[in-house]
């Protein structure tokens, strides 16, 4: 009986080691896939916005700012409540889902179907590509789409922290330069997205012509 138990124990260890090896290999391959990692990074960034809001929640005063002018002064206030305070993290979750999950998959589906509803540079060249080339072309600039989603999460996190500090009186004004800096980065990412998409279509069309 002891021998059977020992053998069973060794078999369990071998099975556990095999499962752990397969799982770690799967996770490593996924981590090397940028199209899997970037949505996770966006999700983690959004989780950070929720954590910031939750940490500030217990110390909020009866009123919180909900709007700031261009100089950073609060010109709109409301009573502190769950819906009012956690609206920004919730908005971030929606945007993370749209930019990090729904929109990329929708674009790939339209590209594979060669749908005229997909707006891409050099559209005539794009629609003349085979399905595999269209798939590669539409996936190429998606890293910039996820970068935009990450910048949005950073902007929302800044607004959450700044709103809490203005609400409890630690700040008289919300510094506006971080917001404008993030907006400048967002604009840069949008330009990079357009340039990357254009280059991807031209590259696939050139490869097809060779």
Structural class: mainly alpha
Give the helices and strands as they follow along the chain. HHEEHHHHHH
Order the strands across the largest sheet as they lie in space: 1-2
Summarize the amount of helix as a percent range: over 70%
* Number of β-strand runs: 2
Radius of gyration: 24 Å
Fold blueprint:
Elements: H1 2-31, H2 34-56, E1 63-68, E2 74-79, H3 82-85, H4 87-113, H5 123-127, H6 131-139, H7 142-167, H8 177-209
Antiparallel strand pairs: 1-2
Helix pairs in contact: 2-4, 2-7, 4-6, 4-7, 6-8, 7-8
Question: Which features would summarize this protein structure in a list?
Answer:
6% strand, two-stranded antiparallel sheet, elongated, 210 residues, mainly alpha, disordered N terminus, 2 domains, 75% helix, 2 strands
What's this model, at a glance?
Helices cover about 75% and strands about 5% of the residues.
């Amino acid at each position: 009986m002891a021998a059977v138990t020992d053998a069973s124990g060794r078999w369990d260890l071998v099975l556990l080691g095999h499962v752990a090896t397969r799982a770690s290999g799967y996770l490593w391959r996924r981590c090397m896939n940028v199209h899997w990692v970037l949505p996770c990074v966006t999700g983690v960034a959004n989780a950070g916005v929720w954590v910031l809001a939750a940490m500030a929640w217990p110390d909020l005063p009866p009123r919180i700012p909900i709007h700031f002018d261009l100089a950073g002064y609060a010109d709109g206030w409301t009573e502190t409540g769950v819906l009012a305070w956690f609206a920004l993290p919730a908005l971030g979750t929606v945007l993370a889902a749209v930019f990090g999950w729904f929109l990329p998959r929708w674009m790939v589906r339209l590209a594979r179907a060669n749908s005229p509803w997909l707006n891409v540079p050099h559209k005539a060249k794009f629609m003349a590509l085979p399905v595999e080339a269209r798939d590669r072309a539409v996936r190429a600039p998606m890293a910039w789409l996820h970068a935009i989603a990450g910048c949005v999460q950073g902007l929302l996190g800044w607004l959450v922290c700044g709103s809490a500090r203005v609400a409890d009186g630690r700040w008289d004004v919300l510094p506006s330069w971080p917001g404008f800096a993030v907006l400048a980065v967002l604009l840069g990412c949008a330009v990079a997205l357009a340039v990357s998409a254009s280059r991807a279509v031209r590259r696939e069309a050139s490869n097809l012509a060779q």
